[in-house]
Write a structure and sequence with these properties.
By secondary structure, the chain is of the alpha+beta class. The protein folds into 2 domains: 107 residues, Phosphorylase Kinase, domain 1 (2-Layer Sandwich), CATH 3.30.200.20; 122 residues, ATP-grasp fold, B domain (D-amino Acid Aminotransferase, Chain A, domain 1), CATH 3.30.470.20. Helices cover 28% and strands 32% of the residues. Strands 8, 9, 10, 11, 12, 13 and 14 form a 7-stranded antiparallel sheet that branches. A 5-stranded antiparallel sheet has the order 1-2-3-7-6. The chain has a two-stranded antiparallel sheet with strand order 4-5. Helix 1 runs parallel beside helix 6. Bound molecules: cytidine-5'-monophosphate.
């Protein structure tokens, strides 16, 4: 069988050429990395869970009219997505202080922010994805002013959607990261949400107990990452098929 052409291999995903022009197959690996890949592990089942969870969030976003790259899930680890010209920014939305914001500003983790705060990091692993301002983005031409307006509006819509979905299952959306890319439907480019939305790219805390249900479990050695992601999937009603109990065969008389 002919091998598919690999386009790109990242820390947690592999991208292959898709079956039709303008499509890509996104394969979710079990690899987990943190601190710009200084810490690495293979976490069995993570790829399957993130494939399902990203499908769930992207489908929900489509239903409320937030355009994104998801086309359809192909199997346990792969989904078909639209090919985009990625904007080299990580767009972070924060509702509560945590992580690098807490470190930078000396805020206790969990402090509620006066309003959602959007930050931008320049996507470059060799530089450790540094925080940048809109001045850098404009001066270096990473996105136009119109695109920055669109990015802000998309980021806040995703925040409202995800916060609501999580709140409904007793989870606080502390912060998250998205990426966006350009698609060319006609002459003009349009931005859509790309990459993935999963507990790898969000901070999710149980509202009652404060228990972390996201990649911080791995970053900070807080227990089983698979258990945490499975709990998120269970609450959202998104369970991989393999984990549904299979009844034993019974004799038919
Ligand atoms: O590390 P920091 O506090 O800046 O992360 C903010 C949010 O962005 C977290 O939810 C984290 O998981 C996510 N993030 C990410 N990929 C990165 C950096 C941050 O998904 N490269």
């Amino acid at each position: 069988m002919a091998r598919r052409k690999k386009i790109y291999e990242g820390k947690a995903k592999i991208l292959y050429e898709g079956p039709e022009p303008g499509t890509i197959v996104q394969y979710f690996k079990d690899d987990a990395t943190a601190f710009n890949a200084e810490k690495k592990a293979v976490i069995e089942g993570k790829g399957v869970l993130n494939n399902r969870l990203s499908e769930f969030f992207m489908t929900g976003l489509s239903q409320i009219g937030v355009p994104n790259h998801f086309v359809r899930r192909l199997n346990m680890r792969e989904q078909l997505v639209r090919s985009v010209e990625i904007v080299p920014l990580e767009i972070i939305v924060r509702n509560y202080a945590a992580g690098t914001m807490s470190q930078r500003l000396g805020l206790e983790e969990g402090t509620q922010l006066p309003r959602p705060i959007v930050e931008y990091c320049y996507k470059d692993d060799s530089l450790g994805d540094p925080l940048v301002t809109e001045e850098h983005i404009a001066a270096f031409g990473w996105a136009s002013q119109q695109e920055m307006d669109d990015i802000l509006s998309i980021a806040l819509r995703v925040n409202d959607f995800l916060s609501g979905v999580m709140l409904a299952v007793g989870i606080r959306l502390v912060d998250f990261k998205i990426e966006v890319g350009r698609v060319f439907d006609g002459e003009f480019p349009r931005l859509i949400v790309a990459d993935e939305i999963s507990p790898d790219s969000c901070r999710l805390w149980d509202i009652e107990t404060g228990q972390k249900l996201d990649k911080d479990v791995f970053r900070r050695d807080l227990g089983s990452l698979t258990d945490a992601y499975t709990e998120v999937a269970r609450r959202l009603g998104v369970m991989p098929k393999s984990s549904t109990p299979v009844s034993k065969p019974t004799l038919i008389n």
